[in-house]
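User: My instructor asked us to take a sequence, write out its structure as tokens, and then describe one feature of it. I'm not sure where to start. Here is the sequence I was given:
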Amino acid sequence: MLIFDYSKEGRKAYSLPHPIEDTKIKIPEKLKRKTLNLPEVSEIDIVRHFIKLSQKNYGVDSGFYPLGSCTMKYNPKINEEIGSWEKVTDIHPYQDESTV
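Assistant: Let's start with the prediction itself. The structure tokens for your sequence are:
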């Protein structure tokens, strides 16, 4: 469902500042929007909408995820640990490969 589907005339969960006319950058009139097409929804509708969207994203902490989940969960932790070892961090970039 789109956020526009929740739109009802008169609801408003945002406030926009008045444009400053005294700016150094002038926007050509042909590039300025004549109307601002935003959905008319309350703040709670926006929060609920984006929470529903976030729950559609799948995470390894919210359920079973087969096919490569071990690689996705554990390798980065192992790589971070090994990458922090002094044997790795103290290698000089120009050190001869045969001595590494």
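For the description part of your assignment, you could build on this observation: The mean pLDDT is 80. Try explaining in your own words what that tells you about the chain.
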